[in-house]
Amino acid sequence: MSAIDATCGIDVGTQGVRASLVDAEGRTLGSGAAPITSDHRDGRRHEQDPEQWWTALCDAVRQALDVAGEVHVTAIAIDATSGTVLVEHADGSPAGPALMYDDTRAQGFADRAQRAGESLWSSLGYRIQPAWALAKVLWLRGEDVLGAGDRVVHQSDHLVRRLVGSVVPTDTSHALKTGVDLRTAAWPADVFAELGIPLELLPGVALPTTVAGVVSRSAASEAGLTTGAVVRLGMTDGCAAQIAAGALEIGHWSSALGTTLVVKGSTDELVLDPSGAVYCHRHPDGGWLPGGASSTGAGALRDAFTHGEDLGQLTEQAAGLGVIPGATYPLIGRGERFPFVAADAVGFVGGHADSDAARFAALCQGIAYVERLSYDVLASLGADTTGPVSFTGGPTANEWWNQLRCDLLGRPVRVPREPHPSTGMAMLAAAEPGRLTETVASMVGIGRSYSPDADRGGQLRQGYAELVTALVERGWLGSQAASYALAEAGGVPR
User: Fold this and answer.
1) What pTM was computed for the model?
2) Where is the Carbohydrate kinase FGGY C-terminal domain (predicted)?
3) Which CATH superfamily is 247-490 part of?
4) 4-238: which CATH topology?
5) How, if at all, do strands 288-293 and 279-282 pair?
6) Where exactly does CATH 3.30.420.40 map onto the chain?
7) What is the pLDDT of residues 270-287, one digit of tens each?
8) Nearest 5°: CA angle at 28, between 284 and 30?
């Protein structure tokens, strides 16, 4: 029997790497996953070892190939965390640990970057935030850690280079938080000159789906891939999940829940947010992909339950508790970036979560509250959020949580047949430039659908309104977004 043609999508997340092999109809032929254990947090700092990314990537791809059997990999694409950068030597080796997407050590440089490019950033609808890669580039320049021939590259750039064995451009998606001009797909030379950033310090820029090269003999040997397979430039993890959700057509939306929560949709026009919480990626086919990435997410469950608790059992117990009263904001660490920007935000648990099951339920509700607030913030800025919503990410395996989130959103929800960012990247790998939406539409299948329970939705909106009020009282959420959210929730909390 001849080998089946397949494309390979690779998702590099906070906790590990996942690889998926799919056929021309979007069906998964094989998948694999490998952990990243080098994660190190210290206050505002968050680092990982780039060498372990590559090791995990190779392990995950080999697992997927073992499961798939006889396949011929024709193309590959990678997504990675948005805003993660590292210093890379001229030979492509990492100069040290990577600065992760939520590392805010460069907080003092964000304002400087914002002032230098105020006009451009405003026209594109975002503000430079402390965790963004452009602030980190300035911090790295100030630390005098850059040697001759060194460059600052994104997580995805580094791994694509490892695959093809030569210097590669970055894509407009991963480069967004480094200050790329999305309209021209180029670095803003005048802004960078004012900031003292030489253009040669960064990779060139191209659109996602652009061919970066082909898999080298060395990479093929390490990862088990086909020598000469095409490697296309990918998009960030949030965009990869949006692709997997099939939310590329105008008016479609997706919620990707993993360690963090990413909400994204597709619009004809830019959605402009003066606060910088919402920003738009450039749609590779034309148009815009507005949304944002919260620092909250399912990582809060991992952080809260560290003693081997059975989350399946906790889910069964939580389902019998009903709605936990009170406002819970499940933020790990300090600082929020979406659906509002607050560098000093910290998490809190309200109500009476007096057991593991109640605490689990309260955290799941809190994440759902942040998700609902994300859509309300987008709508308050003029985005039409009434279209189809899809859920993706590992937590979609939890039926109770899916239904709870659906109830609070108050609209039908669907879960794609293959709800993983790695699947989204495999679909992108199959797409020729300018044909991503068309290609994805032919490959996405719907696995499950949910309809909202109005009664439980009403109960959940009470806690949601309490959370919105608590965020306003702490000075983290603006009045426009809060007023809209409270009106949609049915008024102020009792």
Assistant:
1) 0.86
2) 285-431
3) ATPase, nucleotide binding domain (3.30.420.40)
4) Nucleotidyltransferase; domain 5 (3.30.420)
5) antiparallel
6) 4-238, 247-490
7) 999 988 899 899 999 999
8) 120
